Amino acid sequence: MKNKKETKWHYQVTWKVEEEIQDRAQEKIKQLIEKWCKEQGAQFIDLFFEPDAFKLDTQLENNINVYKATKSLNKGLGKVISGVELYLVVTQPERLEGHSITQEIRVEKVIESLWSAEYYDLDERAADDLEAFKDYLNSRQLATIDVDDQLYIVDIEAIGALINLNCFECTKLYQYGCCCGSPCDMSRKNQRYLDKHLSNLAEEMRRLNEKDYDEVMEKGGFISFDGSIKECNGRCSLLVFHEGVYKCMAHKYALDHEIPIYELCPLSCLMYPLEIIELITDKKKKVLFFTSVVEEDFAKIYGRWGSYGSLQIDHRCVKPEAHNEIFKKEDYKPIYNVNQNLLIHEFGEGIYKGMEQLFNKTT
């Protein structure tokens, strides 16, 4: 098998249970799992117990499909404790020194059969040249996270990159910050939510800054005929100058009125620099790819925001090496951690738990 000499495979497998796991059951579960590891030729690393779950940490020289490989094990576990269910699988390649990157078998199949790459939450392609995009994917060290039988692919380096989104300090220096020009389009769901609050949001902008309100209304309001947010004098029309800085009116209105920000703010605005791309295979299967635009080359070619390097901004937020007394070094956190609430809101707690497990292992 070609993976054997090039890569070792680290697996973190989590089962959920309906009842608290007593000591006697823990011992029996450990025996079954150690036996399974021996049968698979796997190195048993550890077994962790929580009140409603248990997690296996193991390593193999061969890449396996855990869902298929644990079928008989799951039956045995079900005889020990009721309601046991395979819930979360994190698969991380550990490339051996001197060898090229080797992708997991399922990732290889997704890349080979890639039919389209589209931005999550937008009706827009992320890549027209699929062959070039496939080459890019194959050049990255990719992990997989399975949650309830849904496959996610994670660019380890890009999602683990450190950022510090100190936007208010940025806009004190650069006025509009990244919110210059016209923002990314909204999904239809976002449009419907925003429409419900648009008149109240406009009235709130007039109360905060009548000059900004008048400028926006002279341009025809916030939203264009095709449903996208308009630009107003070089900035997003939803920006309002308030308390010495420009703020997103939709974000402020949502917070002030205890409305989830994911309902009123375009998801693309909340995501930056996280990038999520739907990988659609020729069999119409959708796999979500998590990466980021912290690398300018990727941002130019594939990021939904385009080149961030072209903006006349330092972008200390995505450059930990450029930290200073305002963008403090200790405030930089991994992208997946900064986007915890967004990830859970869109995909559930499982995907975030999977990323925590992935990066707790890699760091």
What does the secondary structure layout of this molecule look like, with pairings?
Blueprint: E1 7-16, H1 23-40, E2 43-50, E3 53-60, H2 66-69, H3 71-80, E4 85-95, H4 105-112, E5 114-119, E6 125-127, H5 130-138, E7 142-147, E8 150-155, H6 156-159, E9 162-163, H7 167-174, H8 188-208, H9 210-218, E10 231-232, E11 235-236, E12 239-242, E13 245-248, H10 249-256, H11 261-264, H12 267-271, E14 274-281, E15 286-292, H13 296-301, E16 333-334, H14 335-338, H15 340-347, H16 349-362
Parallel strand pairs: 8-15
Antiparallel strand pairs: 1-3, 1-4, 2-3, 4-7, 5-6, 5-14, 7-8, 9-16, 10-11, 12-13, 14-15
Helix pairs in contact: 1-3, 8-9, 15-16
Radius of gyration: 23 Å
Gross morphology is: elongated
> What are the low-pLDDT stretches, counting only 5+ consecutive residues below 50?
none
Helix content: 25-40%
For the largest beta-sheet, the strand count, sense and barrel status come to: 10 strands, mixed
**Helical stretch tally:** 16
DSSP strand (E) fraction?
15-25%
Average the pLDDT over all residues and give the rounded result. 92
- What is the number of beta strands? 16
Kindly, what is the distance between the CA atoms of the first and last residues, rounded to a whole number of angstroms?
29 Å
Strand-pairing-aware structural class: alpha+beta
What's the arrangement of strands in the largest beta sheet? 2-3-1-4-7-8-15-14-5-6
